[in-house]
Design brief:
two-stranded parallel ribbon; endopeptidase fold (from Nostoc punctiforme); 10 strands; 389 residues; disordered N terminus; alpha+beta
């Protein structure tokens, strides 16, 4: 083989060249293998498609869950914002009540001082007690007048004091009510913060799962594409094999064509060919190599045969397309044996040396291998004869 990348050339060459003398049993084996491969690929594709559909359902469910958490988080954020406004209002009320308490206390002290001043200014300058005011009366009538005045002042003062105390208690009660509301708002704030944190954590978990599922979907779709390509190639192989089977049957039923191929055989000593080929044992494998410095498989067979005046085509596909087909039971030393390895058709060739062995140039270089071992046996597709014995 020369250019390994020419995969599709190998498919088209199946009909035009490679399988001109492809035995029907080899066709059947290759067709069965490709049909089995196709069934396996289609099964794998169905499994991947099912998994992609399952992942798509998971993706939708996760997106819906994330949207639900987003809505919940938004609602909680609005509640937290409302709670902050309420807390600010309560603290403003508390501050205002504190200011009002201080003002009331100051007004009480002012009223008490004003009443005391009235008493002092009414009777005499300086600080005097109620008894002094009464004992300083000049007559009983003056005493009664003074007593009445003091009782009026005392009553008024008590009323003022009581009024202020009542107002002060109302303010204190209001302060306690506001503080209780603040504690309630603080508890609600803590609950909302915990709910928000939980929603964020669950949303993050769903987002991580979504990323994993989306990656799985992309991987599955990529695998689908690869499987579809392999299915198309395998279907092309099957079609090519079926077409080649028909072409081979037509060729095999044409005695004139078979006689022409047999007449083209060149006289040569197979033992001499094998002996000459064995001189190159250990020669390294070189892709596209056609000389003793390095051979690929078909370059090796072409070089050896050319030494004896037998000129065969360059590639393994072309070599398989010519010569006389030989059944496995009729193999003789000097026949070329062919294998289908990395591509459809004859992608590897060696020289049969007898006893189920061949000499060929493969990855390890020129060596002797068993034609029907566990590796080469399943890949064997047929043989061609170019020399008369």
């Amino acid at each position: 083989m020369q250019i390994k990348s020419k995969w599709m050339y190998g498919v088209s060459a199946i009909v035009a060249l490679s399988f001109v003398f492809f035995p029907r049993d080899i066709f059947a084996n290759s067709l069965a293998e490709d049909q089995q491969k196709l069934a396996q690929l289609q099964s794998e594709k169905a499994t991947v498609e099912q998994q992609v559909q399952s992942d798509a359902a998971k993706e939708l469910a996760l997106k819906n869950a994330i949207a639900t958490f987003d809505n919940s988080i938004h609602t909680v954020e609005l509640q937290i914002e409302t709670n902050h406004v309420r807390m600010a209002s309560l603290r403003a009320q508390e501050h205002q009540l504190g200011v009002q308490l201080a003002q009331n206390q100051q007004e009480l002290e002012t009223d008490q001082n004003e009443l005391a001043q009235i008493v002092r200014s009414e009777y005499e300058d300086g600080n005097v007690s109620y008894l002094e005011v009464l004992f300083n009366a000049t007559s009983f009538t003056d005493f009664l007048s003074r007593l009445y005045d003091l009782s009026v002042v005392s009553k008024t003062q008590n009323q003022v004091v009581q009024s202020v105390k009542t107002l002060q208690q109302a303010i204190v009660d209001k302060q306690n009510e506001v503080k209780a509301s603040e504690q309630q708002v603080a508890q609600i704030e803590a609950q909302l913060q915990a709910l928000q944190a939980t929603d964020e954590a669950l949303k993050g978990e769903k987002q991580h799962n979504l990323a994993v599922v989306e990656a799985d979907i992309q991987s599955g779709k990529k695998q689908q594409g690869l499987l579809e390509s392999q299915i198309q190639l395998t279907q092309s192989d099957i079609q090519a094999i079926q077409a080649a089977t028909q072409a081979a049957e037509q060729q095999e039923s044409n005695p004139q064509y078979v006689q022409q191929q047999q007449a083209a055989l060149v006289p040569a000593d197979p033992n001499s060919i094998i002996g000459y080929a064995e001189q190159f044992l250990g020669t390294p494998y070189v892709w596209g190599g056609t000389s003793p410095s390095g051979f690929d498989c078909s370059g090796f067979t072409q070089y050896v045969f050319a030494h004896f005046g037998v000129y065969i085509s360059r590639t393994s596909e072309e070599q398989f397309a010519a010569g006389v087909p030989v059944s496995q039971n009729d193999l003789q030393p000097g026949d070329l044996v062919f294998f289908s390895t990395y591509a459809p058709g004859a992608s590897h060739v060696g020289i049969y040396i007898g006893n189920g062995l061949m000499i060929d140039s493969q990855d390890m270089g020129v060596s002797i291998d068993s034609v029907f071992n566990s590796y080469w046996g399943p890949k064997y597709i047929g043989a061609r004869r170019y020399i008369t014995h």
